[in-house]
Amino acid sequence: MVVSDAPPVLGKGSVVRKKLSNCRETLHQGARFLCIAGLAVMASVSAFADAPQTPVLTADVGSGDTLVGRSAVTVAPSAAGMPGTAIVISNPYGDLVVIGGTLVGNVISDLQPNAQIQLGLVSGSGSDSLVLHFQGFDIGAGNSLTMRSGAPNQVAVLYNAGNSASTIAGLLRAEGGNGALPPYLYLANPIGITVAPGGSVASATGLTVDTLGATDFEGEALVNEGVVDGGGYLRLHAARIGGGGAFRADVAHVSTFGNANNPVHGAYFLANSLQFHPSGGTLVELTLNHYGAAPQFLNFMVNGDAYVLMPSQWPPAWSELPNNLPVPLGGTRPPGVPQPSYGGGSLIVQATSSLTLRNNNSNDFVFPGAIVLKASGALNLNDVLVNQGWTAEGRAFQGVFFESPNIISSGLIRVATNNLNWVNFSAFPNAPVRTWQLVPMPDGSLQYVTADMVAPHLNTYSVVTEVAASGGCWICIVNTEPVDMY
Questions:
Q1: What's the pTM value of the predicted model, to 2 decimals?
Q2: Of 154, 358, 428, 473, which alpha carbon lies 20 to 30 A from 165's?
Q3: What is the dihedral of CA 18, 22, 27, 32, to 10 degrees?
Q4: 431: Cβ–Cβ under 8 A, 6 or more apart, which residues?
Q5: Contact 182/157 with Cβ under 8 angstroms?
Q6: Residue 397: pLDDT band by 50, 70, 90 thresholds?
Q7: Nearby residues of 359 by Cβ (< 8 Å), 6 or more positions away
Q8: Distance CA 329, CA 240 (A)
Q9: How far is Cα 119 from Cα 99, in angstroms, rounded to an integer?
Q10: Residues 113/82, Cβ–Cβ less than 8 Å
């Protein structure tokens, strides 16, 4: 099932997605924090996206999985067993019941291991929430905090107002009560959140984990070495995202201005991915929102079937920040306009089964850097334009790879790429291929020109990077002969 272009909903349609897009303002008006590879043919140097140049350079810049991202995956043990004192900022649901803790007025304190907070008997309206501000939010190994609904359509916002990052080594979970679904959980800490090995944050109704600060361009890391499970719907908003734990959801949205990867396997880039799993069934619908001012390095593995959306324009009712844009096909970069500061990162999306690009109102998939799409089953480009064109300088590591035993499309396979970069296929695709390269014009502008006879090549990303990571001669196995696939 593919969601429509209407915004996804939370809690069986009760709480609209726009609420969470603007929740740092809507739910926390009193707290400013919560107002979200290819080949370059030049000289004798050819390089694949995310492939290493030299060991020194790999160590220095990470070759697509940067040291910034690597530093984000250090897990600190929890020093505190349970969350600290909480102030009830907003409660539209009626009287709370705290089991294993003390509730006096609007203050919750002395939470014990395995504490429970029962929400009131008033149903949610779709635009309200229980908001708790904690002075420190940690859950030690073996401990748990349960948020239980008292009526349908409820939302619980848990915000760390203390001055330390959060470590979840135990369980934070939402449960249903009085016949209602579990409350939607919103967990926020602008200083960072780590889910440690053995730790879990889960709500079958839906979950948002947010480590952004006062603006969408501030904040700290979200590190998952345990389980983060949103059930039907999961949103991640963070300055950067790391860890080797499981992100579980049927519909997942990732929004960051930094890196999202798990760079612990060195030059074996395909192993450096964040792990996404369906919460039920076999499909994950993954939406990606990248908006950093610097090159971003994003690496995702979907363990199952994947539908992926990363457009130049969001569907009409959505309120996301715009994705960083390459030069649009048919457009130009005027003379004298510099290359974007965000150009030159890399994106890897893999699926253990099929991978399909989701069609949308703009009918494109945009990332101003290297792109690798890899599926063990069919790779369906679905008549979606893949656009990465941001430079005409012939940069290494900035091509495109499509890898699958069955590369298909409901229409043409269309790729807009950079000057001198290649569009690589692991096998001859089962649809015609049109390609364009962004090249300099005599007046100094950049424009796309047809590249059907020069850009497409037959090369397999996993084969070449495996040889490179093992220290072999990966250049020796590169097929340099272009193939007209149109």
A1: 0.86
A2: 154
A3: 180
A4: 381, 407, 408, 409, 411, 412, 413
A5: no
A6: confident
A7: 382, 383, 384
A8: 30
A9: 11
A10: yes
